[in-house]
Amino acid sequence: MLDGAVLILNQNYEPLNVCDVRRALILMIRDKAQPIELSTEKINAVSESFAVPSVIRLLSMVRRPVLAQKLSRKEVFWRDNFTCQYCGQKTYDLTLDHVVPRVLKGPHIWENVVAACVQCNHRKAGRTPLQAKMQLLSIPSTPKANPYDHLMHRALPPEWSIYLPWVRKEPQSSPRGFNYYSAIA
User: Fold this and answer.
1) How does pLDDT run across 84-103, given as a tens digit for each residue?
2) Number of C-alpha atoms within 13 angstroms, CB side, residue 180?
3) For domain 68-142, which CATH number applies: 3.30.870.10, 3.40.50.150, 1.20.58.100, 1.10.30.50?
C-alpha cells in the first residue's frame, strides 16, 4: 500500500513527478504538500488514520530545469519522421548521416546529424552534401524536449487524467443533453 503511485503537481497544478504513498504522506505531514485527490484506501497509524492520496500539490513552486533532448539514433529518426533527408523515402531501414562527415571534423550534434536511407548514405559517403551534389530536404535542428516524457510511458490511473495536458479530455454534455463535442466532431 505504501508503494502505490501518487502524482505530484507543482504549485501551479503542473505535473512534476510520481512518488510513492510513503513519500507523499511525508510531504503532507511536513506541510510541504496538500492532497488534491484521495483514494478510498486508508492507512491506520497508532493515533490516527490517513486517507491515501492519489494526487498531491506542492505548496511552493519548484523550478523545472530546462531539459536537453538526448541525441540518439531513435530520436533522430523520430525527429526526421522516419524519412530519408536526401531522397524523401519513408522507411524504417535508415542510417545516421553526418552532414559534415566525421572525417572532416564534423561534430556529433543535432544540427549535423540526419536520417538517411542506406543508398543515399553510401552515395554521399565521406563528403558534404555540396560535394556529393545532394540537397537536404530540411535543415537539421535540436528538437524541444518534452517535460512530461517521464510520465507519458507509464500506466496512469484515471483520476490523474484531468491534471495531465496530453490526455484528451472530452467535454461533459450540457444539462439539456446537447453534447458540444459531438456537434463539432
Assistant:
1) 999 999 999 999 999 999 99
2) 6
3) 1.10.30.50
